[in-house]
Specification:
about 210 residues, alpha+beta, Peptide Deformylase, 5-stranded antiparallel beta sheet, binds nickel (II) ion
């Protein structure tokens, strides 16, 4: 297993659409193991294949407590089959060293994918939990989308990127999410306990 170089924002590879994996071959398994190694060594919760220069539809996630045992999740050829609710998600990305900003995400998602042995599985993540946000973030990478494309405040995102010497927001890549913005407001009213939990989690991590 080896640690791969993580590609940073500004590299066009991150904007390409990735291809489906036709077979979870030995070579693909090695790539997945290397991606896990790379993610753990960078203390990330997720990593997508384009971030290590492979435009293939694969991502890995581990949202377990860093002080406990590891719990790697592997997603090959993922499809998001259900999504609902919306939340504010404060996110960063291993391809954007140290830069964090507020983005819009769905609160609940269901994803279908193949595991490292090529076996299909379905995974559900709810109530804006870290797994729900990570799945959407990593899934986006496979379509050449980046978290800043979902930013809630373009000027805030720009100033964060500038602070860490990263290229500015690509205005033509911004996703129009007015409906999602309205849904965030609605969801916050209806699920105060979820919002409270997310706030606490954020405070603990700062
Ligand atoms: Ni990322």
């Amino acid at each position: 297993m080896s640690i791969l170089k993580i590609i940073e924002y500004g590299n066009p590879i991150l904007r390409e659409k990735s291809k489906e994996v036709t077979k979870v071959s030995k070579k693909i398994k090695t790539l997945i193991m290397d991606m896990l190694d790379t993610m753990y060594s960078a203390n990330g919760v997720g990593l997508a294949a384009p971030q290590v220069g492979e435009n293939l539809r694969i991502f890995v996630i581990d949202v377990s407590d860093p002080s406990g045992p590891i719990n790697p999740l592997v997603f090959v050829n993922p499809k998001i089959i259900k999504k609902s609710g919306a939340i504010n998600s404060y996110e960063g990305c291993l391809s954007f060293p140290k830069a964090y900003t507020n983005v819009r995400r769905y609160a609940n998602v269901m994803v279908k994918a193949l595991d490292i042995n090529g076996r299909p599985f379905v995974k559900e993540a709810r109530d804006g939990e870290l797994l729900a946000r990570a799945i959407q973030h990593e899934f986006d990478h496979l379509d050449g989308k980046l978290f800043i494309d979902h930013c809630r405040n373009r000027f805030e995102a720009d100033s964060v990127l500038k602070k860490f010497n990263l290229p500015p927001v690509e205005v033509d890549k911004l996703i129009n999410e007015e409906d999602l913005e309205k849904e965030i407001e609605q969801y916050e009213k209806e699920h105060p306990e979820v919002i409270e939990k997310l706030k606490k989690e954020l405070e603990e991590n700062q």
